[in-house]
Fold each of these.
Amino acid sequence: MITLRKVNFLVFLTGWFFFPFNDFKGYSILGEYKNEACSFFFAFGFLILFMQFLKNGNFKIPINSKIFNVLLFFLLWCLCTTILNINTVWVSYFKQTGGIYRFIRQYISIIISCIIFFLYYWNVLESKKIYKLLFILRKTLFFSLIFVFGYGFLETLIQVFHITPIRYFLKLFDFFPFLDINYSGDGRISSVAYESPSLGNYLITISAWMFSYVLTSKKTFRFLPSFMVLFLAYFSGSRTALIVISVQLFLFLMVLYKMKEYRKVLLNGLVSLLLISTTFLVVNGNSILKDVDKKVESLYFFKNLKENNSNKSRLGMQYASLQVFIEHPIIGVGYGQETYYKRFKYPHWATVDNWEFKNIYNNHSITSFPSAYNIYTRFLAETGIIGISIWFYLIYLCITQSKKIFKSTLPNERIIGFILFISFVGLSLNWLQTDFLRQHGFWLCLVILIKINHERNSRVLFEKESVKLVS
């Protein structure tokens, strides 16, 4: 029998299939979510959830979870710090936007990701068996990756190997929803995402899920998902993705090495990677070597600071945010308010000969606010030492509790702990280069962590009660 619950679970999985798709025009009225295909499905799913609530009054909130309460406390502090700064928030004005309006839009955005979508995930997954859920969700992400890889592989042939006739095959993807065929000529790929960093963000989110195939399968296929992630990360040219996924990969290899039963698997994987790399070098060695040299050169962030406007902008924004924090260290300047202050703090070395500041960040006709390029420096400026302490505590709980689950004696729990631990580490590092909370993968992992903690606590309680009955 088809029920609203089953339909909503299908909507949930469909949303995660379309998670990387954001290379389409979208709807400006949706603000930050205007071109996120997955958000359309999650919003529709929440509407179904609301209909279920009206029908049977059933709506669950993990109110007993310490992690969820810390999250609520952080959101409450974001509101409090803005109220405490209301005198300046009221009169702030920049890029045709007042401080109050800016706060409302930013606060609604954070509520959508951290509360509405979070509670949607929780209510959809709360009744599911955690182990069955793991394999269904991972398979959905893998099918999505196959599509992303297929598109990205064709794009690589065009962008890197200059096989231009391939573009006619690429046009076939135009028939797929939430996708406008678009690729740059700079040798970087973005696949179904609108830009390379966005593709990198997606890969960081799913990497642990794909690495876990090595732990759960005995077939040669187990290496394929990991290879696809590494292939796309490399050719995307995203510095953040290259660095963060390298860290995630290192943690993964450390896990394999410490587990004796997987050391042979580790060796086989490295041999397979070597054979694949050798094949590419034989086919087109010169292009590959030049591309490797280019990628390595791009990782020298400070070396390229003078020549690279993007690097200057990123570091300059982070520097300006820190200057705002120094002047308002305790409670910050209010959520969503840092730009009203930091625009007077831009360092000269970042703005000189940098067209981005002149044409975008200081251009009043472009109403979008400049990015902070770092969630931590943004929270320091906007919420002060109190807010950032709460946020760091939330991340600390996520990583330590995931690590604890990974040390479980139950195989399935170990796999889930592995995915959560590597995902939380990667996404936390990724926030060093992004300043938004629309990290859907983080909130999904948070829901799974709360759910498995609830199941573990219930099992321990049951075992204790059983001992009492026996005694």
Amino acid sequence: MENNKKYNLIIIGLIGLVALMIYQNVKFKKEMEFLNSHVSNMELNLNNGMNNLSYTILNQVENLINEQQNMVSEYKSTYNSVDAQKGIVKSLVEFSLKQSDADSKVYLNVSTQNNPNGLDFECGSANGFSYACETELSYKDNYILNIYQKDPAGSYKKLNSDSYPHHIKSDFENRINLTESGTSTNNERTDYSFKLRNKTFGEQSFEINSVIVKAFYEGREVYSKDVTSYNIVNSEARDKMNVMIASGQIDSTAIPEIEYSEISTDDNGDEYGNYMVSILHADTGAPVENIKYPEYSFKVMITLHNGDVYEY
């Protein structure tokens, strides 16, 4: 009996030892897998870091080389006018050169995907450094512009490192844009606001004649207003004030009254407007039930001086 007891204890001890060894082996295996995964992640992060650093360095070197090779600075292009009958846009391209050869002539090359050779326009300069070039191009294409110098022997040298895009077709087809439109509503009214931009190409007939906002409820027109003269000229200042009010920096009484004017125009002759209309539910007859407010749909009708009408 005593021997059986000892034998059983030995068996139990061996089983416990084997179980401990199995447990330690499993634990060791998991730790090795964790270490391998950790090392792999470290290698991956290190490789990504090295690749990013390499890309950054190469990009900086490339930019530096391009900047050293680029002889053009202060480049800009503006639209002067449009001949709608001929489908032609007149543009003015202006730029400066870091250095110039008095015996050479400077040309602007204008190309397209279908015509890679393009057209050359000679550029004029009063001082040998600041140049201007007038172009007449069809508004049915987008263009790529490059600047060349031609020496007396007839050899061409490219002066810009990167080509300049001239998106006449895209600008012409999308010359009127409505942006940042949205609504806010409560139990009394719905406010509808939007911004618009009109690229006039320097043509008076492409300027905005009227801006009309219409509101619809369940397919029925319930509101119409001509907002042409209600461009909010101090909207940026009011937006900043609202942010400061929300953060508790200033009191709500400090916000200025809305200032209205005709549509704004920038130095290129392009027009910008910022508008907001308020629709009273009581005026439209739309029901207000508890916290369920009426939902309106809006239409903005923009008419140009030439009679063209755009609806958004």
Amino acid sequence: MRKLLLVAAGLAAALAVSAQEDRQADSLRHAFGRQKLPSSNRKSTPYADTLDTGNTAVKVVLYNNGTYRYVKDPAKVVEDSVFTANWDTKAVNPYRMEPDQLPDRFSIWVVDTLDSFCCPYQTQPRSHFGYRHGRRHQGIDLPYPTGTPVHAAFDGKVRISDYVGGYGNLVVIRHANGLETFYGHLSRRDVQSGDWVNAGEIIGLGGSTGRSTGPHLHFETRYKGAAFDPSWLIDFEKGTLRHRLLKVRSWYFNPNQRYVQSVDDEDEIFRTDEEDRIAAEEKAKKEAAARAAAEAAAIRYHTVRSGDTLSGIARKYHTSVRQLCRLNGIKETTILRVGQRLRVH
């Protein structure tokens, strides 16, 4: 206990000094956004106390092992409109909007310095996002033995905890950034609609309820009701969050679009608006230069010989006298000179 009191005293003295540093650390920096985040489970370490920070939405949690971290106060977070607008404890998609109504590109902070992440299950996905047997498969399937604890991927508020058709026992969690994560086919649900859960908290047990061919976890990620491949967000084989900042493109919501990413793709995704503008200008210049080169390569000339006429030259090159005159700035009555070069294409 004495150790915890010393930690608390040190924290209280350091809060004012560290406030500015924390604001800087939380700034929207692409370098930070691109950082990967390993799976963690804060619930595995019991906490001993909490301290106020001067910001009613942020607390300091002291853990029994002598460590601490800043966390958001759920009582304040849930006051945000994201947890009231389009809030429905029954409808799978309460937004009722088409994906093409979303912007062509936008960014979502998935995890910042006050949030944590827990991989739902580190494994190789068995069934991927997209069409399957002629039907849309809105998420991915993770092999998951019946009775295995299912953990929340991020902090959030439970919107749905119910038996829902083909999903069977389903838990849907809405997160402060507007994302929702779905956990389907559970054998048991351990949370109720309205509950606040932290990343890593057990929300139920794996199973095979609903339309299922065997025990597995059906996991979805949606934004405003539009599903996208969770693999854009999580590397399930490594158990890591790919990026703290998710740069979304409209084509992510295409049911045929699965996660496929190269280094070049990643650089394009994380370009800033200014970098995009510069890249667009460079692209336009290259395209203009390519068109000019193609036009130059297509230009052909004819050297006038004795007896040549404009009509004869036009027939030879499958063009018209009018076109020859236009290309060379001459008239139909112009007298041709032997050795004169005429542009014919």
